[in-house]
Design goal:
Layout (H helix, E strand, L loop, with lengths): L1 H30 L7 E3 L2 E3 L2 H33 L1
Antiparallel strand pairs: 1-2
Helix pairs in contact: 1-2
């Protein structure tokens, strides 16, 4: 029984490492999204659609990165509890 718990803790720890690496990769990808320059024309901001699309991509990548970091922390907590 002790061997099973130790083996499960090791598997959970490696899964936690994988999710932490995924989170880091997703945050790196979100930092590399090209945000277009916003031009203005006589006081009005022109053509915001590319900027909104880029910000939506950044937000989605950040959301998945935060979820991966949460899963990583949760797996570590479970591994410690075993």
């Amino acid at each position: 029984m002790i061997w099973i718990a130790a083996h499960a803790a090791q598997i959970l720890t490696w899964a936690s490492v994988a999710f932490a690496g995924l989170a880091a990769g997703l945050w790196a990808a979100s930092a590399k999204v090209n945000l277009p320059v916003i031009g203005s024309a006589y006081g009005d901001i022109a053509n915001l659609d590319p900027f909104y699309k880029a910000m939506k991509t950044v937000a989605r990548l950040n959301m998945f990165a935060a979820a991966s970091a949460f899963i990583s922390a949760l797996l570590q907590a479970i591994a410690l509890a075993l």
